[in-house]
User: Which sequence fits this backbone?
């Protein structure tokens, strides 16, 4: 049963658009699936390999701009960006890894954060390539109906899920966890930590980049402030995984459901809408203090807490 | 002409660097003692700037006098954050040790968003009377071959920053509490064995770092504009300075601040205004690759060599 659980969820998600959802609802679900894919990618690098990146917007944005530039400069369909972004982002991650993987712990985090910002500022200033702050507008939309986009992102997310699951359960996954738990011990056991960290970074980056390329096609408009955003991409990715559960397969999915719908809910409440970041900040603080391994990771603890609360009823 | 613009850029960079150093020292202090990175550092500075802004707008207090108001306010805010948010997290077990860093991100988000709610996201500035005045070299030296100017608010801010840094140096090296803080930064266990109240020192250090960056905010407001989301960029600046200077090293932070200020000013003049942030990160990457221990490691090497 447990073995088939992912397939059952996938099948349920596949028939979801057939129950006649409104276009708005479908849009929300597309965002949920997209963010869970990004969250899973981040989780591979941070949750399993222990390299907490604060700059996943860099990969997301490079993927998005691969699509955008193909359209803007070469007049090709931005859909070609989806496969191409894999190649571009892997090269990009490899070069980036050379610099940032020298660092450990929080310093790695901040170096990646800085890299995300470097990419944003570069995209703003390289007018000849990216169109600068004006962004790139995809004038021809492929489909009006969102169902097609839904199935594409579902395929991408499902692929991400199975790739991450396969990697983590393979020998490579054990190397990653060994590096997370104790890098020096892993090194002394003969694991080439830098090489495996580079692999984790490249795969994680590529998976994020595909989601970014999809984003360009789906939204039809990108600019540096949207796709290279620190809070709206990098930090949201971290929050999704933290809320859902670090180093769990389902954590990013659960986190994305909660975050996307919660964001929409809070924004729609009049008077409270502007405070949605305060709300998320407080949520993040509460989660870190009380459920440090997220809802999925600390599910037993959560259940116990709820039961305990129930006893007083 | 070339010389003139170069010197002018150098002066501007030096003045900016002095202020950067003050921001960096706050961060390096916290990093040295706590071993965590405070990603809400820029947001704390933003709070300091708002304190100065409202003091000026409502009761007309000069921003430079607000240093004495904003610093205590930020000191207590920092103590609150450390005591009630970071300390509990240090105790819980989790897979990722970076939880504390992510926590400070949450704190920063809350601060920036609260500022947006209460003060709107308008750009604000304090229109002080001396805001645009400057000293010119030709006024003092009639036959000067080149013309240089020195902006009054920039210079005053710089002098204040130097004064605060000196006061801090005095506190850290001459008083008992200051020595305890330094001891905690150097070796936590040893400090504990010597009877230093490490827990208290951590709280005080976070407060002190916050107070310093709050003071820096007051010094920045006469020359900069203020908006709620300005924090992020200053957090990054503080971090770059800390890496450049060497973790936990105060002198390193001062030198790092000056280097960064001059470098940014040069990038803005000779490459383009928009590229100044990229220059910031280039220097950061260069420091990581070629000088991983920062300026502090160079200083140490020299001392050992003697």
Assistant:
């Amino acid at each position: 049963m447990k073995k088939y659980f992912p397939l059952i969820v996938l099948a349920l998600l596949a028939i979801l658009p057939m129950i006649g959802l409104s276009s708005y609802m479908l849009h929300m679900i597309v965002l949920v699936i997209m963010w869970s894919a990004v969250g899973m990618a981040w989780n591979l690098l941070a949750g399993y390999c222990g390299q907490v990146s604060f700059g996943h917007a860099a990969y997301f944005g490079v993927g998005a701009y691969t699509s955008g530039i193909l359209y803007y400069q070469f007049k090709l369909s931005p859909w070609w960006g989806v496969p191409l972004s894999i190649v571009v982002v892997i090269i990009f991650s490899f070069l980036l890894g050379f610099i940032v993987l020298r660092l450990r712990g929080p310093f790695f985090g901040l170096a990646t954060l800085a890299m995300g910002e470097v990419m944003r500022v570069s995209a703003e200033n390289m007018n000849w390539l990216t169109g600068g702050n004006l962004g790139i507008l995809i004038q021809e939309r492929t489909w009006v109906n969102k169902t097609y986009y839904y199935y594409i992102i579902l395929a991408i997310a499902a692929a991400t899920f199975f790739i991450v699951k396969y990697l983590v359960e393979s020998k490579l996954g054990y190397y990653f966890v060994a590096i997370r738990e104790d890098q020096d011990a892993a090194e002394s056991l003969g694991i080439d930590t830098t090489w495996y960290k580079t692999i984790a970074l490249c795969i994680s980056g590529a998976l994020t980049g595909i989601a970014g390329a999809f984003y360009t096609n789906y939204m039809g408009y990108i600019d540096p402030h949207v796709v290279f955003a620190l809070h709206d991409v990098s930090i949201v990715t971290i929050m999704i995984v933290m809320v859902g559960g670090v180093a769990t397969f389902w954590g990013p999915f659960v986190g994305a459901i909660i975050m996307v719908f919660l964001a929409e809910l809070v924004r729609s409440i009049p008077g409270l809408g502007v405070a949605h970041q305060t709300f998320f900040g407080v949520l993040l603080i509460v989660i870190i203090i009380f459920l440090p391994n997220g809802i999925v990771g600390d599910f037993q603890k959560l259940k116990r807490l709820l039961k305990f609360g129930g006893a007083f009823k | 002409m070339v010389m003139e613009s170069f010197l002018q850029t150098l002066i501007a960079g030096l003045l900016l660097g002095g202020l950067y150093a003050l921001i960096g020292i706050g961060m390096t202090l916290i990093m040295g003692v706590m071993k965590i990175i405070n990603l809400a550092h820029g947001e704390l500075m933003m709070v300091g700037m708002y304190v100065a802004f409202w003091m000026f707008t409502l009761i007309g207090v000069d921003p430079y006098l607000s240093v004495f108001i904003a610093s205590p306010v930020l000191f207590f805010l920092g103590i609150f954050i450390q005591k009630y948010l970071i300390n509990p997290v240090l105790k819980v077990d989790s897979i990722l040790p970076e939880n504390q860093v992510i926590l400070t991100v949450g704190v920063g988000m809350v601060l920036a968003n609260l500022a947006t709610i209460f003060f709107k996201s308008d750009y604000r500035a304090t229109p002080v009377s001396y805001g645009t005045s400057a000293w010119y070299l030709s006024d003092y030296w009639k036959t000067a071959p080149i013309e240089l100017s020195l902006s009054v608010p920039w210079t005053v801010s710089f002098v204040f920053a130097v004064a605060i840094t000196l006061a801090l140096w005095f506190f850290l090296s001459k008083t008992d509490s200051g020595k305890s803080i330094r001891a905690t930064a150097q070796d936590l266990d040893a400090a504990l064995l010597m009877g230093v109240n490490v827990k208290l020192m951590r709280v005080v250090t976070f407060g002190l770092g916050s107070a310093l960056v709050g003071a820096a905010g007051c010094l920045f407001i006469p020359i900069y504009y203020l908006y709620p989301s300005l924090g992020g960029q200053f957090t990054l600046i503080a971090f770059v300075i800390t890496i450049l200077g060497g973790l936990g090293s105060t002198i390193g932070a001062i030198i790092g601040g000056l280097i960064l200020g001059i470098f940014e000013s040069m990038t803005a003049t000779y490459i383009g205004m928009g590229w100044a942030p990229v220059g910031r990160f280039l220097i950061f990457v260069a420091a990581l690759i070629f000088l991983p221990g920062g300026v502090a490691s160079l200083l140490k090497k020299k001392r050992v060599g003697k």
